[in-house]
Structure formats: C-alpha cells, structure tokens
Amino acid sequence: MIPILTQVVSLASTWFEGQQKKSEAKALADVALRQAEAEVFRRKATSESDWDLESMRGSQNSWKDEFLTIILSVPLILCFVPGMEEVVRHGFQQLDLVPDWYKAAFAVVVSASFGVRSYMKFWKR
Length: 125
Prior knowledge:
Blueprint: H1 2-58, H2 64-78, H3 85-96, H4 100-114, H5 116-124
Helix pairs in contact: 4-5
C-alpha cells in the first residue's frame, strides 16, 4: 500500500510543479506584454516629439507662419475699420460658396503650419 501512496504523492507533486510552472510562465508573459506596451507608448511619444522638433527646425527660415497669421488677421482687423464691415461680410459670404475640398485643403495647410496636434487639441475642447 505504501508504494501506491508514494506514487500518488509523486503524481500529485508533479502535477503541482506543472501548475506552478504554468503560473510562472503566465506571469512572465504578462510582464513581457506590459513591457512591450510601454515600449510602444514610449516610441509613439518620442516620434511625436521628433516630428514637432523637425517641424520647428523647418520653419525657422520660413515666412509661412507669419503669412498665414496676416491672412487670417485681415478680416478681424477690417471689422474695426469704419466702412469695411460690408467688405468683410461680403468676403465671408463668398467663402461660403467655396468648395468644401478647398476649405479642407486650406485647413490642412494652416494646421500643418501651426501644428496638427495643436489644431486637434484646440477643437477637442
């Protein structure tokens, strides 16, 4: 009877060892998954930062931002010039007639100039 009991104990011990190894393997897999997720998040943050730096470097010798700022400011300024209110109103009425693809293209140019993520953050508020 003792040899059978020894075999049962040995079998149970082997089963528990197997369960323990499965549990350890699962824990290691979970750790590896978390590390991979963290690496993806880190790379995404780094690439966005790199994109912003390159964009800033590229615009250092460019008048594009200043030009767009002036163009976008003209209607605002003209609203305060006596007699120009009708010109501004007419201009915006004409802009309503512009095709949507043109408005979208202009929005892309402006958002690319001032930063796409900044533009998106502004409209998410």
